[in-house]
Design goal:
Elements (H helix, E strand, L loop, with lengths): L2 E3 L3 H23 L2 E3 L2 E4 L1 H19 L5 E4 L3 E5 L4 E5 L3 E5 L6 E6 L4 E8 L4 H22 L2
Antiparallel strand pairs: 1-4, 2-3, 4-5, 5-6, 7-8, 8-9
Length: about 150
Amino acid sequence: MTVTARPRRARIVCVIAAAAVALVFTVVALGLRGEKEGVVVFGVGDQIAMIVLGWLGAGAILWFTRLKVEADEAGIRVTNLAGKYDLPWDVVREIRFDRGSPWVTLELESDDVLAVMAVQATDKGYAVEAVRGLRALHSSARATASGV
């Protein structure tokens, strides 16, 4: 059994927002032309810079779509905004999805806590299904490790 999850609603919002930012910056840049008393106010360089800024902003927004969690019998692999983590199940003490929490967290045996931003509360039933799958894999791995 494997579990793979990515945020659904957040991805949709990010894709729409990124497209909107890129489009708005491009349209505004193409509209920036003019001279005032013989002095060029906005030139081609300004337009290009504005378009590049818009596309960089869109890229930054799309960075939020990289969130992902994959799990199988061997362990769990979490991709968050700031890094990737590959953990065997024996270092995971508990999988938590507390009421009011924006996403799932892993409590580790070292007393550290790792956010699993790919499983978000806004995804409701999809998130609950992913948590159930992760917990089933975790408990199965724990049972195998303890020899039960």
